[in-house]
Structures are given as C-alpha cells and as structure tokens.
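Batch job 17 of 40 flagged for manual review because the log was empty.
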Amino acid sequence: MTGRAALENGLVVASHGRHFLVETPEGKLLICHPRGKKSHAVVGDRVLWQGTHDEGTIEKVEERRNLFYRQDEIRTKSFAANLDQVLILIAATPEFSGSQLARALIATEAERIPPLIALNKSDLVEPFERAWARLLPYQRMHYGVMPLSLRQSSQVDRDHLLKHLEGKTTLVLGPSGAGKSTLINLLAPGAVVVTGEISQALNSGKHTTTSTTLYWVDKARGTALIDSPGFQEFGLNHIEPAQLAGCMPDMKAHMGNCKFYNCTHLHEPGCGVSAAVGPADDGITPSRYRIYQELFAELSQPQRF
C-alpha cells in the first residue's frame, strides 16, 4: 500500500537536532526524520509519518492548538506544542529573576496557555519567606502560586502536584538549579531510564541530553510532563510593543482608564496605567512597571537581520 493510505499517526515525544522520537498509538517508539530540509515538528506535535525500513519520515504536522516559544534577535526556540499549561518552577535560592518570570508569563499569555508558578525550597524558611513575598503581586493577578519542597518531598507533596497536573500536558519551565530534574523524577520515576533510552536512540549511544522530552506520568498516558532545557535568556521579539501591556494582567486591568486609545503607558497624559503605579494592593508595583518599561524599549528596537 502506498501514498496517503500508508501514513500513520504518532506523537513527537523527544527531539534532538533533526532527529525526532515518535510514539505510536500502541506505545512503540520510532526514530523519524522530517521530509525535506526544514524541521517544523516539536515535542507535543501530532504527526503523520511513513515507515522507511526501521525508521520513519514525518510527512505532516497536524494542526496545533498552541505553540510555546521564545524569540530573540538571532533565533526562535520552540519549546513544545499542544500544551494544557506551563509550570514555571523557580526556587527560594538562588534568587529568581523577576524579569525572567515576567517574560515567561507574558509568553504564556500571548499563547493563551494557563501558567502555574511553583516556588521550590519551602524548607529554607527565611529565603522562602522573602521569595514568597515577591510573588504576592502575582497572586493578586490571580496566577496560581504553590509552595514546594522537592528535597523533602512526601506523598502529600506528590499528590498535591498531581492534582494540578492530572489529565493535562504540562511544560515544566525554569532556570537551572530550580529543581526541574527532581520534579520530573518525583512524578515520572522512569524518567531517568527513558532519558537513557532516548539518548541512545537519537544519538547513537552518545549520552547527550535531548533538547526537550515528554514523559508520561501514568500508564494510561493521560498525564504528561515535558521537560525543557534551563534558560538564562527569554526573548519576546515575537510580541509587538503595543501587545505587551495586554499580556501583563496588572497593566491590562488599568488600560481602559487611559485617555488615548494608542497609549504606550510611558509618558502620555491621562494614562491609567502609569497612574496606577504604587503600593496599593490593586495597583501596579514599581518593579513590575520597570519591567514593562524595559521590555517595551527592548521590543521597540529595530530588528537586525
């Protein structure tokens, strides 16, 4: 049988360069390569593939519900597709970057993917209290914020986490040192074994880590975690400056009070956003407003090609 009838369904569960690991509906794993020179598939994609000897070729990427990515002046980095939520994991120590957290949340807002913020190392009392206080503005913005202690994790912690993840495909995002590997191994105990198998399959036995990997938490394959590499920078060049305030809930709440419809919220008279900056519980904190100003300036720079 040839042509369209020979195409089979699959899910991209790992990627490394131009090599992809595709899982069949029966749970088998197959190395696949994209058709042509460009690689458009990412982890989480539903694809149609065609077998060629003991490997396969990705013929088509099915329509996505969403695509979570970052973009700087040089490149676009796609994390994953078809997500139900993004778990942003940060820690009480080392101190997390407010700018990086804001950037990740703006990217989720732009794609309309619900985020969940988890603050690790609740066992470190004083650093945790300081970090938790920094997250109060995000709680007022109605973001989900939960405490974690992955080093002292118990069945209670695991059950609490699973309650938020059950039945969903979740991208775990966060800087190096926040505890992503510990979280993945807590919820998907076979992850280390799976990573080894994937590394061997995609890298011919070399133990290099794949860029992004999907792990099933349950045998029924209904709950998935997608592990992504740690990041230091999170570019938002795919977002227009005029879109920025609408992707920041504390800004968005006051945009309707601006005198001008095309207000940049930087220097215009009668700006409802800048008027709301201050210590009030329902206002915009000065640090958040500084992040907005810095991002607006960054996104307004002419693109270099």
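Reviewer: the log was empty due to a logging misconfiguration, but the result itself is present. Residues 98-111 form the longest helix (14 residues). Unflagging and moving on to job 18.
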